[in-house]
Amino acid sequence: MRDLEFNIKGMVSAHAIIASSIFIATLMPHFFAEKYSVIGTHLVWLYSVSGSVVVVNITIFWLLGISPPPKKHTLSYKVSKVVRSCLHFIASCLFFHVVLVLYGATVLESALETFSLAVLLSSFTTLRCLCVLGPNVQAWIRVFSREGAMSIWDTSLQITTACTVIGTWVGAFPIPLDWDRPWQVWPISCSLGATFGFLTGLIIAPGWIYWHRKQLTYKCK
């Protein structure tokens, strides 16, 4: 039980750093881009947040040693793992892009905006799976199946991913309304919804795990 509570404290600290990086990434472009605003220059904000989340997640999970140990310690195997992770991330961006198109995004018009949102979603979801589970699709399927979590970080993946997807879905509701607001332009409300959903997941995950710690039977990594 003490080990579980210690790991929860580590998760709280990690999630606090990740959340802080989003706020810093929101403010940083003010110093480099003219007339910057989250809505007016939305893609600048979007890629700033995506890049920050990618760098901070990789750094934190590497320092914490959360990712599964390599089966081989050769340089070629490590390079192969990095390459496969990059390919998984790119495939995730393409997957989210197709899903967004199927849900109503235009195919050609605003294609850059749609793909940018896909990159943001991959940064919030797929990247964390790569950091925790590695480029192992079978492990991903296990984690997102019923009662498939084997550590508190697996549970965190489930919660943050669900909150991100729900936030994106909720963010799409105002777009077709005829309010004629600047933030209704595609994909501003969706990307903001995804970000708020992800931040909500970062807050909920350690709280939910702590509240249910007595019922959790898996072993922490």
- What is the average of the pLDDT values? 90
Q: How far apart are the first and last residues' alpha carbons, in Å?
A: 14 Å
The 3D shape can be described as: globular
Q: How many individual β-strands? A: 0
Helix fraction bin: 55-70%
Largest sheet: none
Poorly predicted spans: none
User: What is the strand content?
Assistant: under 5%
Question: What class would the helix/strand composition place it in?
Answer: mainly alpha
By DSSP (H or I, 4+ residues per run), the number of helices equals 8
Radius of gyration: 18 Å
Order of helices and strands: HHHHHHHH
Commentary on this structure:
It is built from eight helices and no strands. The two termini are 14 Å apart. It has 221 residues and is an all-alpha fold. α3 crosses α4, α4 packs parallel to α8 and α7 packs antiparallel against α8. The mean pLDDT is 90. 35% of the residues are buried.
Question: Would you kindly provide a brief summary of this structure?
Answer:
With 221 residues, the chain is mainly alpha-helical. The protein is built from eight helices and no strands. The chain has helices at residues 2-27, 42-64, 75-102, 111-124, 126-133, 137-143, 152-171, 188-211.
